[in-house]
Amino acid sequence: MTQGENRKYLIEYLLNERGEDSAMPQSETQQKMLLRSLMNVRPPRKAESAFLRVQDEYLRAETEQKGITDASSLKEIAPNICLWQGDITTLKCDGIVNAANSQMLGCFCPCHGCIDNAIHTFAGVQLRQECAKIMQAQGHSEPVGIAKITGAYNLPCKYVLHTVGPVVYGKVTQKNKRDLANCYLSCLELAIESGLESLAFCCISTGEFHFPPDMAAGIAVQTVKDFLSRTGSKLKVIFNVFKDSDYEIYSGLLGASR
Which of 14, 27, 168, 200 suits 191 as a labelling partner, its CA being 20 to 30 A distant? Predict the structure, then answer.
């Protein structure tokens, strides 16, 4: 089937699963938004093998179309450290870090702009299923500053590391700073424990969780540098940014230039 036919099949499957009978949007953009919305709100449950086969083919083709960046092609700007501006769901590396919430099931808000939404969307419905199994076994919300690892499914990376960052209410506290540093440290330790050779960090807690970007970046860079120096690890760490403003912050801290 073509991408358009695959997309319509997935939409119809998910609508039928919900017991809804909505008209198929005519434009490709509207269809993509509807499909993403349906995936975002879908609870963690098994899907038929036929659906998964089409979904996997569709999502991988979408990512290929966006363009995949291989982490091995990124130039180090400090020992074992790279800075890369782009869509983390298109980065081919061993692991990427997801800024999760305490449910750790992904973002349920249709087409929301957070990284949690993007990662779960382009990984596929299997990621929410795996996260749900972890949370069910755990029996409680995910604490701040801890890391969990899952498969990446249809993303070009091998694994996703999920961590819940601190939410800032008003003034940044010392606890907020320690919690954020622990997010980075927990991911680094888990990456080494899991045998990863490369790990890409998003800007944890700086979006919906309101941590000031410049302060968060300083904590991120210092924590990573201290870890690499203390452990002698050869883990390749990629600081991934999406906004120009974040690139400027990290480039200033790391001495990078475009």
Answer: 168
